[in-house]
Amino acid sequence: MAEDARPGPVRILVFGAALRAGSTNARLASLVSKVIAETGAEVDLAKMRDFDMPLYDGDAEASEGLPAGALALCERIKRCDAFVIASPEYNASVPGALKNAIDWVSRVRPQPFKTKHALLVSASPSMIGGNRGLWSLRVPLEHLGTRVYPDMFSLPRAHEAFAEDGRLVHSGSQERLTETICGFMRLVRADVEFVCLQRRWYEFPGDRTDAPVTHRSEE
Ligand code: FNR
């Protein structure tokens, strides 16, 4: 095989979805980045504060187009093979800022979510680690065609879960996080290098995919 025809390292966007400076989800995103980098992949670590955008407003979109923050986030998603979101749970659901960012980016055509794999992780001071928020987060992403990895990772009592080196104090939790990430990375690599999954249908009326059966929502 010619040198330049060899597949390069897969590229993963790791997105800490909280705005707070001391965010435990940012710490979790940073730990996830390290574990992914150890698998030989390229990591692009991002946080919500990098992508300033107003609340979605159809009038603003019509008169001014998409905000720079949404376009920048869209570019970062486009450039990756897969992404990880580390998100808090707010009132048992997705934080408004994250849903707002997904809504804005979903207005780009073609929208970038449909060709990506995603892994969802959360951190929370509660005993269930924000896991209900991740179930809510699956809904818009799967609607947009993202292949959301079946396993998720939720870190309970996150305010006391990190050691000084950034790893998890509880070795069993660290092991499970690493195993979850490695399983996800195996799937991403397989799909990038060998196309192991092909999407035939998903229900997003704003976009077309190649197969005619995907147009059900437009009939
Ligand atoms: C929360 N928090 C919270 N935690 C949780 O486990 N389940 C929940 O439903 C909620 N709901 C909720 C609503 C609102 C409006 C706020 C501000 C907070 C607590 C939340 O998990 C905690 O603040 C985390 O520390 C937020 O994540 P970061 O900022 O540390 O990444």
Structural description of this entry:
The protein has 219 residues and is α/β, with parallel strands linked by helices. The protein has a single domain, classed as Rossmann fold. The protein is built from six helices and six strands. Strands 1, 2, 3, 4, 5 and 6 form a six-stranded parallel β-sheet that branches. The longest helix is centred in the last third of the chain and has 24 residues, at 171-194. The N and C termini lie far apart (45 Å). Mean pLDDT is 92; it is low at 213-219. The structure holds ligand FNR.
In short:
The chain is α/β, with parallel strands linked by helices and 219 residues long. Helix content is 37%, strand content 13%.
**End-to-end Cα distance:** 45 Å
The top level CATH class name: Alpha Beta
Order of helices and strands: EHEHHEHEHEEH
Q: How many distinct beta strands?
A: 6
